[in-house]
Amino acid sequence: MVWGSFGIVHIASLLIGAGIIVGLYYLLRNRSSKTQMIVLGILSLYGVVSTFYNLFNWGSPYEYLPLHLCSLTALTLPIAIFTRSKTLSNLLLLWSLGAIMALVVNTAQANYELCSAAFILYYGHHLLEFGIPILLFALGLVKKDYKCIGSTLLITFVTFALVHFANLWLNSYFIANNITNPAGELIQVNYMYTLYSENPVMDLFWSLIPYPFWYMMPVLLIIAVYLVLVYLNQILALFKKKEA
């Protein structure tokens, strides 16, 4: 049976995923913070395993370098947990959204067999990558801090810019050295989709600003609005305190 896209199996997998996250919360909420950290830390390694599986399993490692947002999140998540970094944990409240988007908009993975390693690793990787940052805050292991809005925006922008230049350099290298994938096609990468759109949502931004890198700049405004909503209670409390 294949996963499919927006069929019964796909929708059921999303509901089951939500149940798993809620179940983990109730399983861990009365445990010690040490136990909570150990469990979430071990689960966070799932994404690291998945990232390296993709790197070495498909016969074309250049096309699976950990430069997409979900891979970067997978590598950042264990560090955030084991260091209890407030900056990284608050950053992951944004970055983890990429994981849920990858589960919902699963067009490229819709043909995965449910019992295959590819599906199990992809699904578990993105589910935990989305759920663990939520659990960190829900369990009180890390505190939300509106002061992290600036660092979140800065780190995200710098990461996006660095990946963009990595795309340009890698593609130039592949062309100069005629590096091909197992199908014999010249490898050209588009990590974090900095060079062009690859889905209908991004098509909208491309239609507004049809230029590589710059077409994603309106997303920064959307991100800023999202972060304000995330920290709205803290921001309102700050204004009330100033007025008092």
Descriptive account of the structure:
The protein has 244 residues and is mainly alpha-helical. Helix content is 68%, strand content 0%. The chain contains 10 helices and no strands. The chain has helices at residues 8-28, 33-57, 69-83, 86-95, 97-104, 117-138, 149-177, 200-208, 217-230, 232-243. Helix 2 packs antiparallel against helix 3, helix 2 runs antiparallel to helix 6 (117-138) and helix 3 packs antiparallel against helix 4. The longest helix is centred in the last third of the chain and has 29 residues, at 149-177.
Rg, rounded, reads 19 Å
Q: Helicity range of the residues? A: 55-70%
Characterize the quaternary organization of these chains: single chain
Tell me about the biggest sheet? Answer: none
User: Based on helices, strands and strand pairing, what is the structural class?
Assistant: mainly alpha
Intertermini distance = 61 Å
Give the overall form.
Answer: globular
**What is the average per-residue confidence, as pLDDT, rounded to a whole number?**
94
Number of helices: 10
Strand content: under 5%
Q: Write the element-wise H/E pattern from the N-terminal end onward.
A: HHHHHHHHHH
Q: Which consecutive residue ranges, at least 5 long each, have pLDDT under 50?
A: none
| DSSP strand tally | 0
